Amino acid sequence: MIASEAARHTRRIAAALERLRAAVASRPGLGRATTTTSVSELTDGVCCVSREKAWLIESDLAPALGGDGAAPSPAALVRAALGACLAMGYQLRAAEAGVALAAVRVTVESESDVRGLLGPDEPPGFTALRYHVEVDSPATAAALADVVDLGDRLSPVLDMLTRAHTIERSVSFGPLAVREGA
Q: Which among 47, 69, 86, 110 counts the fewest CB atoms within 10 Å?
């Protein structure tokens, strides 16, 4: 990306955040919402299609778990969501601070134990998550550390993965109703 285009993106991002900040300050309830649901349906074997607004997101499991490996696993989507959210957050915070970023890369690793999918002795999900951040920028290391620290602190996905939440389940048995837009 050429410097003038990067500067234009930075100004656009900073302006958008300022507008949002002003709107929420004038109407505090504006920032609170129940997000429209994501609906996931099995399509073939363990392959799933999730609908989130206008987007279709496919997921599958590896052949070792009975899938075809034709799409990312749900765990891969979680890792990707964390990496993308962090990278975007660093850009948002850098734009607010007037710090130019030439490139950002976030590498996310997870540890898990497949035995957790087979029985109650091990947790079925991640047992550890790690991420490594690489930033290319002409800014000082101190300025970049501030951007990364603030990006981490304000990352919605990192927050979702590290803070306990209330999760509620409801179950219906019987034929599935036809959904609009499906």
A: 69
Q: Reduced to 3 states, what is the DSSP secondary structure of residue 37?
A: coil
pTM recorded for the entire structure: 0.88
Close Cβ partners of 124 (under 8 Å, ≥ 6 residues apart):
116, 117
**Cα–Cα separations (whole angstroms), residue 65 to 47, 59, 76:** 11, 13, 14
In order along its 182 residues, the chain shows pLDDT tens digits of 567 787 888 889 888 888 988 888 888 788 787 777 789 999 999 999 999 989 999 999 999 999 999 999 999 999 999 999 999 999 999 999 999 999 999 999 999 998 898 988 889 999 999 999 999 999 999 999 999 999 999 999 999 999 998 999 999 999 987 776 65
CA distances from residue 168 to 162, 165, 171 in whole angstroms, order as listed: 18, 10, 10
Distances (CA, A) of 169 to 36, 108, 172: 16, 29, 10
Element (H, E) at 39: strand 38-44
What would the two tokens of residue 72 be?
A: 């990312």
48 Rama class: left (phi>0) / alpha (psi -120 to 50) / beta: beta
Distance CA 13, CA 22 (A): 14
Are 158 and 152 within 8 A, CB to CB? yes
